[in-house]
Amino acid sequence: MQSTGWWTFLLVAAVLVAVPGPDFAVVVRNTLAGGRPRGLWCAVGVATSNAVQGTAAAAGLGALVLRVEPLFQAIRWAGICYLVLLAVQSIRSAVRGEYAAFDGAPAGAAVAWAGWRQGFLSNVTNPKVLVFYLAVLPQFLSPGAGVGLLAGYALSHAVLGLAWSVALVLLMDRARRVLARRRVRRSLDAVTGVALLGFGARLATERG
Predict the structure, then answer these.
(1) Domain range spanning residue 153?
(2) For this UniProt entry, which segments traverse the membrane (predicted)?
(3) Residue 103 predicted with pLDDT over 60
(4) Rounded distance, CA 190 to CA 93, Å?
Protein backbone atom coordinates (compact mmCIF):
# COMPACT_ATOMS: atom_id res chain seq x y z
CA MET A 1 0.00 0.00 0.00
CA GLN A 2 1.00 3.63 -0.43
CA SER A 3 1.72 4.22 3.24
CA THR A 4 1.28 8.02 3.29
CA GLY A 5 -2.01 7.93 1.44
CA TRP A 6 -3.22 5.01 3.55
CA TRP A 7 -2.56 6.73 6.88
CA THR A 8 -4.20 9.92 5.62
CA PHE A 9 -7.19 7.88 4.49
CA LEU A 10 -7.43 6.18 7.90
CA LEU A 11 -7.37 9.56 9.63
CA VAL A 12 -10.23 10.87 7.50
CA ALA A 13 -12.11 7.58 7.84
CA ALA A 14 -11.70 7.67 11.62
CA VAL A 15 -13.29 11.11 11.79
CA LEU A 16 -16.22 10.00 9.63
CA VAL A 17 -16.68 6.78 11.63
CA ALA A 18 -16.74 8.70 14.92
CA VAL A 19 -19.49 11.07 13.75
CA PRO A 20 -22.83 9.62 14.98
CA GLY A 21 -24.99 8.39 12.12
CA PRO A 22 -27.44 5.59 11.32
CA ASP A 23 -24.88 2.87 12.15
CA PHE A 24 -24.22 4.44 15.56
CA ALA A 25 -27.94 4.64 16.32
CA VAL A 26 -28.60 1.05 15.22
CA VAL A 27 -25.72 -0.34 17.30
CA VAL A 28 -26.95 1.58 20.34
CA ARG A 29 -30.51 0.36 19.78
CA ASN A 30 -29.44 -3.29 19.53
CA THR A 31 -27.22 -3.04 22.59
CA LEU A 32 -30.13 -1.63 24.55
CA ALA A 33 -32.48 -4.31 23.24
CA GLY A 34 -30.26 -7.36 23.70
CA GLY A 35 -27.21 -6.36 25.70
CA ARG A 36 -23.59 -6.88 24.68
CA PRO A 37 -24.11 -10.04 22.53
CA ARG A 38 -26.66 -8.46 20.24
CA GLY A 39 -24.77 -5.19 20.11
CA LEU A 40 -21.58 -6.96 19.03
CA TRP A 41 -23.38 -8.93 16.35
CA CYS A 42 -24.92 -5.70 15.10
CA ALA A 43 -21.42 -4.20 14.86
CA VAL A 44 -20.30 -7.25 12.86
CA GLY A 45 -23.30 -6.77 10.55
CA VAL A 46 -22.32 -3.16 9.88
CA ALA A 47 -18.71 -4.20 9.18
CA THR A 48 -19.86 -7.00 6.87
CA SER A 49 -21.89 -4.52 4.83
CA ASN A 50 -18.95 -2.11 4.68
CA ALA A 51 -16.73 -4.92 3.39
CA VAL A 52 -19.31 -5.97 0.80
CA GLN A 53 -19.89 -2.43 -0.46
CA GLY A 54 -16.19 -1.60 -0.46
CA THR A 55 -15.35 -4.74 -2.45
CA ALA A 56 -18.21 -4.06 -4.86
CA ALA A 57 -17.00 -0.50 -5.37
CA ALA A 58 -13.44 -1.70 -6.00
CA ALA A 59 -14.73 -4.17 -8.58
CA GLY A 60 -16.75 -1.49 -10.38
CA LEU A 61 -20.20 -2.70 -9.31
CA GLY A 62 -20.77 0.30 -7.07
CA ALA A 63 -20.43 2.72 -9.97
CA LEU A 64 -23.01 0.68 -11.88
CA VAL A 65 -25.51 1.03 -9.03
CA LEU A 66 -25.05 4.81 -8.98
CA ARG A 67 -25.51 5.05 -12.76
CA VAL A 68 -28.72 3.01 -12.83
CA GLU A 69 -31.07 5.54 -11.27
CA PRO A 70 -34.05 3.21 -10.59
CA LEU A 71 -31.77 0.74 -8.79
CA PHE A 72 -30.09 3.48 -6.77
CA GLN A 73 -33.45 4.97 -5.78
CA ALA A 74 -34.82 1.55 -4.81
CA ILE A 75 -31.87 0.99 -2.45
CA ARG A 76 -32.15 4.52 -1.13
CA TRP A 77 -35.85 4.28 -0.30
CA ALA A 78 -35.46 0.81 1.15
CA GLY A 79 -32.92 2.31 3.55
CA ILE A 80 -35.22 5.19 4.44
CA CYS A 81 -38.12 2.84 5.16
CA TYR A 82 -35.88 0.58 7.24
CA LEU A 83 -34.63 3.47 9.38
CA VAL A 84 -38.20 4.62 9.94
CA LEU A 85 -39.22 1.08 10.94
CA LEU A 86 -36.42 0.87 13.50
CA ALA A 87 -37.31 4.35 14.76
CA VAL A 88 -40.94 3.36 15.29
CA GLN A 89 -39.86 0.24 17.16
CA SER A 90 -37.56 2.26 19.44
CA ILE A 91 -40.19 4.89 20.17
CA ARG A 92 -42.82 2.23 20.81
CA SER A 93 -40.43 0.52 23.22
CA ALA A 94 -39.90 3.83 25.03
CA VAL A 95 -43.65 4.39 25.33
CA ARG A 96 -44.28 0.88 26.68
CA GLY A 97 -41.33 0.91 29.03
CA GLU A 98 -41.26 -2.88 29.33
CA TYR A 99 -37.73 -4.25 29.40
CA ALA A 100 -36.10 -7.58 30.15
CA ALA A 101 -33.17 -7.49 32.53
CA PHE A 102 -29.60 -7.66 31.24
CA ASP A 103 -28.70 -11.11 32.53
CA GLY A 104 -25.38 -11.53 30.74
CA ALA A 105 -26.54 -14.74 29.08
CA PRO A 106 -24.58 -15.81 25.97
CA ALA A 107 -26.09 -14.95 22.62
CA GLY A 108 -28.30 -17.53 20.99
CA ALA A 109 -28.72 -17.90 17.26
CA ALA A 110 -31.85 -15.72 17.23
CA VAL A 111 -30.14 -12.88 19.11
CA ALA A 112 -27.05 -13.07 16.89
CA TRP A 113 -29.13 -13.09 13.70
CA ALA A 114 -31.31 -10.18 14.83
CA GLY A 115 -28.29 -8.05 15.67
CA TRP A 116 -26.33 -8.93 12.54
CA ARG A 117 -29.35 -8.44 10.27
CA GLN A 118 -30.19 -5.00 11.58
CA GLY A 119 -26.59 -3.82 11.34
CA PHE A 120 -26.14 -5.18 7.83
CA LEU A 121 -29.43 -3.88 6.43
CA SER A 122 -29.05 -0.44 7.98
CA ASN A 123 -25.63 -0.01 6.39
CA VAL A 124 -26.16 -1.70 3.02
CA THR A 125 -29.22 0.43 2.25
CA ASN A 126 -27.43 3.67 3.08
CA PRO A 127 -26.31 5.17 -0.27
CA LYS A 128 -23.82 7.45 1.49
CA VAL A 129 -21.60 4.45 2.23
CA LEU A 130 -21.32 3.55 -1.45
CA VAL A 131 -20.75 7.19 -2.40
CA PHE A 132 -17.93 7.32 0.16
CA TYR A 133 -16.16 4.37 -1.44
CA LEU A 134 -16.63 5.71 -4.95
CA ALA A 135 -16.02 9.43 -4.45
CA VAL A 136 -13.83 9.85 -1.37
CA LEU A 137 -11.61 6.78 -1.28
CA PRO A 138 -10.04 7.20 -4.79
CA GLN A 139 -8.74 10.65 -3.81
CA PHE A 140 -6.15 8.96 -1.60
CA LEU A 141 -4.85 6.71 -4.39
CA SER A 142 -2.60 7.40 -7.32
CA PRO A 143 -4.06 7.10 -10.85
CA GLY A 144 -4.25 3.54 -12.11
CA ALA A 145 -4.45 1.92 -8.69
CA GLY A 146 -5.50 -1.70 -8.97
CA VAL A 147 -8.61 -3.41 -7.64
CA GLY A 148 -6.60 -5.06 -4.87
CA LEU A 149 -5.38 -1.72 -3.53
CA LEU A 150 -8.87 -0.23 -3.66
CA ALA A 151 -10.27 -3.24 -1.82
CA GLY A 152 -7.49 -3.00 0.77
CA TYR A 153 -8.37 0.61 1.56
CA ALA A 154 -12.07 -0.23 1.71
CA LEU A 155 -11.52 -3.18 4.05
CA SER A 156 -9.34 -0.97 6.27
CA HIS A 157 -12.34 1.32 6.68
CA ALA A 158 -14.56 -1.65 7.52
CA VAL A 159 -12.14 -2.83 10.22
CA LEU A 160 -11.86 0.68 11.64
CA GLY A 161 -15.64 0.98 11.81
CA LEU A 162 -15.89 -2.41 13.50
CA ALA A 163 -13.36 -1.40 16.16
CA TRP A 164 -15.28 1.79 16.88
CA SER A 165 -18.62 -0.02 17.13
CA VAL A 166 -17.19 -2.73 19.39
CA ALA A 167 -15.74 -0.05 21.68
CA LEU A 168 -19.16 1.60 21.82
CA VAL A 169 -20.87 -1.67 22.74
CA LEU A 170 -18.30 -2.48 25.44
CA LEU A 171 -18.62 1.01 26.90
CA MET A 172 -22.38 0.62 27.10
CA ASP A 173 -21.97 -2.82 28.65
CA ARG A 174 -19.76 -1.39 31.40
CA ALA A 175 -22.49 1.14 32.12
CA ARG A 176 -25.20 -1.53 32.17
CA ARG A 177 -26.12 -0.81 35.80
CA VAL A 178 -27.10 2.69 34.80
CA LEU A 179 -28.65 1.58 31.51
CA ALA A 180 -30.73 -1.05 33.32
CA ARG A 181 -32.77 1.68 34.98
CA ARG A 182 -36.18 1.87 33.37
CA ARG A 183 -36.17 5.66 33.10
CA VAL A 184 -32.73 5.69 31.48
CA ARG A 185 -33.62 2.99 28.96
CA ARG A 186 -36.85 4.73 28.02
CA SER A 187 -34.98 7.99 27.49
CA LEU A 188 -32.29 6.32 25.37
CA ASP A 189 -34.90 4.49 23.30
CA ALA A 190 -36.76 7.74 22.72
CA VAL A 191 -33.59 9.61 21.73
CA THR A 192 -32.46 6.75 19.47
CA GLY A 193 -35.88 6.59 17.80
CA VAL A 194 -35.92 10.32 17.12
CA ALA A 195 -32.35 10.16 15.79
CA LEU A 196 -33.24 7.32 13.41
CA LEU A 197 -36.25 9.30 12.17
CA GLY A 198 -33.96 12.26 11.61
CA PHE A 199 -31.46 10.20 9.62
CA GLY A 200 -34.29 8.76 7.52
CA ALA A 201 -35.71 12.22 6.86
CA ARG A 202 -32.30 13.54 5.87
CA LEU A 203 -31.82 10.72 3.38
CA ALA A 204 -35.29 11.38 1.97
CA THR A 205 -34.68 15.10 1.39
CA GLU A 206 -31.07 15.10 0.23
CA ARG A 207 -31.74 13.73 -3.22
CA GLY A 208 -35.10 13.50 -4.96
Answers:
(1) 3-8+22-206
(2) 6-28, 40-65, 71-88, 130-151, 157-175
(3) no
(4) 8
Q: State pLDDT tens for residues 9-18.
A: 888 888 888 8
Is pLDDT at 140 greater than 80 in this prediction? no
Q: For the range 131-135, what are the long-range contacts, defined as Cβ-Cβ under 8 Å and sequence gap of 24 or more?
A: 131/66, 132/16, 132/157, 133/53, 133/54, 133/57, 133/58, 133/62, 133/157, 134/57, 134/62, 134/63, 134/66
Model confidence pLDDT, tens digit, residues 168-207? 999 998 887 787 788 888 898 899 899 999 988 988 887 6
Inside any domain, residue 74: yes
- Contact 150/141 with Cβ under 8 angstroms? yes
Residue 33 has a CB neighbour count (10 Å cut-off) of 22
- The number of distinct structural domains making up the chain is 1
